[in-house]
Structures are given as structure tokens and as C-alpha cells.
Write a structure and sequence with these properties.
By secondary structure, this protein is α/β, with parallel strands linked by helices. The chain has three domains: 81 residues, no CATH class; 186 residues, P-loop containing nucleotide triphosphate hydrolases (Rossmann fold, 3-Layer(aba) Sandwich); 56 residues. Helix content is 49%, strand content 10%. Helix 15 crosses helix 16. It is elongated.
Length: 374
């Protein structure tokens, strides 16, 4: 199996690499010379022993010090060799344009980012059983994930990879909560872009140098921070993403930026606008959510599996609250308080949703944690 490489390019040598190589070569050559000198005679070995305080007559006019100490020619040779190695590395690098800070961020990316695989053939069933138990109304999405996990486990893939999904359904049914829980159960990091509250295109791919707010995108940041190259990444309410305008009048929309990342082949050598280098982003599991999938452009819909989800029933919300309350170890009074809060919301005309249920549980948990007044 071919080793996974996240960064698909060679970095330039660190600025202090020449000094590092010179120190290593000097240490190696000095130790090698000492070993050879010591092997000539047991007296030589004693003479160069730092712990020996006596005097040894070596029977030679040449001092012990000069026998193995590096001379000026040795030092010049070491310097030339270190500089030649650095020059070769820089000649092969595509990152001559990178700043020192960018090189530091990417140094681990040349070898370290890993792929998290399915642990064993039974793991998909265990993960899906847990998801079904917690989110029974999300069965269509859970079943799609089960198929992907089973296939990954049977093939022995290097890492878990779920084909792009679009969860379409009314607000407040737990689409984002379900996706986060999926990442937790699989054991991979989870990231999110809120398409309604940030410039989604720039948050996704980043901004190249020349912009006042130049930065890498959130998926790149997540991989570099966690050193896991197959996270789950959520784009919430994707149909509401607007267009971002550059200072020179250029328009950038989320769909156009996302398309190359959803395609397996193009995402293997995706060109990061910020670092201006190719990266293998093909192992990211993309989960998009939308209230109305029909508002999305056809090219985007054609690259994802659209899963339509129904609205939640009151019974499903209550069942969820009971299970989540037990998972949080809420007391009976605290859980009753959460239920009452939900009933009050319903009487005020607020449509019950998973979002309001979670807020009620959060308040109940906070109240339970408060110290008792005497």
C-alpha cells in the first residue's frame, strides 16, 4: 500500500539547517576519530578518557590531542557538505515563496498527518447501532454511513472516508449534532463552517497572500492542528452561503470553491490558495446540511448524495431528551425542569426542535451544577 502523503510537494530547507547539519557531522566525525584512535592501543583509550586524571606516555611525539581532533580541513569539508545538502533540498523544493512561519507550520505536514482507519470489521455495526439509538429519525443518513464504513472496513482502507453527503430537512432536527456525534464515534476530528455567519468561501479554502486577512482555510487548519488527514467537515446551511467580493471586484462563492474538494481526483492534488502548494484533501468526509436542497446549484447537488429527512415528532424529541438526560447523568428534578421548559416553549407557539431541547438540557445541567443554598 502506497504511503499517504498529505503535502504533495517538498519544502525548502529550514534556515538553520546548515548549522544543524554542521553540528551533527562534527559530532559524528569526532566520535568516529576517537573510536579509531582508541582502538589502536588500550593506552590511547585511557588517554582520551575524560575521567582519567593520570599521565600516559604514548611513545610518540604527536600529542593525543592532535591525533583525533578535527583540523581546519575537516571543518571546511563539513561546511561544504552541509551547504551542498541544503542547496539540493532548496533546488527540489516548490516552496521557495513560503515565509518562515509558513514553513514552520508545514514541516510536520511532510510526514506526520495520519489517516484514522475503521478499527475492525465489527466497528461499523457498533457505530451505527449507537447512532440509531441516539438519532432514530436520522435512519436514512445513518444507513448511508453504515454502507461506507462497511466498504472501508472490508477493503482495509488506510482511513475512514465517507462519500459527500447532503442532509436536507427542516431546521432543528439535529443534522449538525448527528454529524458531530458521528465524528466522535469514529474517532476523527470534526470541523464546521457556518455558512450564514461567515464568508463561507474564504473560510473553506483560505485567502492567498496579498489580502490583508490572508490565512489558510478551516479544513487545512483542522488537519494541521490535529495531524489527522481524514476529519469530518460540516458545512451548515450551505444553501444560505453568500458571495464574497475581493478588493478588485472578484466574486467568490462557496459552491465553486467546494466542487474541487468534493471530487476525489482533483482533491488529491488540491492547490491551497494560501500556501500555494498541492495537498491531498481527498480523505475528508464532507457533510453538508440544508433546509432546502433545491436552492443549491446543480453542479453541487450532482457531487453529493442528497438525503431527505423528515421533521421531528414530539415523541422523538421527548425520547431524545430522556436518553440525553441519562447520558449527562441529570437528576430526575433537573430532567423534569428541562421537560417543563420545552412545554413552555410549545405553549408560546415555538415549534419544538432538537435545538430547543438541547438548550433546555444545557440549562438543566447548569442548574444542577450550581451549589445548593443553605
Amino acid at each position: 500500500m502506497k504511503p499517504f502523503r498529505f503535502l504533495q510537494a517538498a519544502l525548502p530547507a529550514p534556515r538553520n539547517l546548515t548549522n544543524i547539519l554542521e553540528a551533527r557531522f562534527t559530532s559524528f566525525l569526532s566520535a568516529y576519530r576517537k573510536r579509531r584512535f582508541a582502538a589502536l592501543s588500550p593506552f590511547n583509550a585511557i588517554a582520551i578518557d575524560d575521567d582519567f586524571d593520570g599521565l600516559i606516555a604514548l611513545g610518540s611525539s604527536r600529542s593525543t590531542h592532535d591525533s583525533y581532533r578535527l583540523n581546519d580541513d575537516d571543518v571546511d569539508m563539513i561546511t561544504r557538505r552541509a551547504r551542498r545538502i541544503v542547496a539540493l533540498m532548496n533546488a527540489q523544493s516548490e516552496g521557495g515563496h513560503l515565509t518562515e512561519d509558513q514553513v514552520k507550520r508545514l514541516q510536520l505536514a511532510t510526514t506526520t498527518p495520519k489517516l484514522v482507519p475503521v478499527p475492525d470489521i465489527n466497528a461499523p455495526d457498533e457505530i451505527i447501532d449507537q447512532l440509531h439509538s441516539e438519532f432514530p429519525w436520522m435512519t436514512p443518513a445513518t444507513d448511508a454511513v453504515w454502507q461506507a464504513l462497511r466498504l472501508s472496513a472490508s477493503r482495509g482502507d488506510q482511513g475512514v472516508r465517507i462519500p459527500p453527503l447532503l442532509l436536507a430537512g427542516p431546521p432543528g432536527i439535529g443534522k449538525t449534532t448527528w454529524a458531530r456525534r458521528l465524528g466522535s464515534l469514529i474517532g476523527v476530528p470534526t470541523g464546521i463552517i457556518e455558512a450564514t455567519s461567515e464568508p463561507a468561501s474564504f473560510a473553506l479554502v483560505g485567502m492567498q497572500k496579498g489580502w490583508t486577512t490572508a490565512a489558510s482555510g478551516k479544513p487545512m487548519d483542522l488537519i494541521l492542528r490535529t495531524q489527522v488527514a481524514n476529519p469530518i467537515f460540516i458545512i451548515d446551511e450551505v444553501e444560505k452561503a453568500g458571495r464574497a467580493m475581493s478588493q478588485n471586484g472578484g466574486a467568490y462563492d462557496l459552491a465553486s470553491s467546494l466542487l474541487p474538494l468534493l471530487e476525489r481526483e482533483s482533491s488529491k492534488v488540491w492547490q491551497c490558495p494560501y500556501f500555494q502548494l498541492p495537498f491531498d484533501m481527498s480523505w475528508i468526509s464532507w457533510i453538508l446540511t440544508a433546509n432546502d436542497a433545491s436552492l443549491l446549484p446543480a453542479p453541487l447537488r450532482s457531487r453529493v448524495t442528497v438525503i431527505d429527512l423528515p421533521a421531528l415528532t414530539i415523541k422523538q424529541i421527548i425520547d431524545f431528551m430522556l436518553k440525553e438526560g441519562r447520558r449527562r447523568d441529570l437528576s430526575a428534578p433537573a430532567l423534569d425542569a428541562a421537560m417543563i421548559a420545552m412545554q413552555c416553549a410549545a405553549t408560546r407557539g415555538t415549534m419544538p426542535s432538537l435545538r430547543t431541547a438541547l438548550r433546555a438540557l444545557d440549562r438543566a445541567e447548569a442548574l444542577q451544577a450550581r451549589p445548593m443554598m443553605h
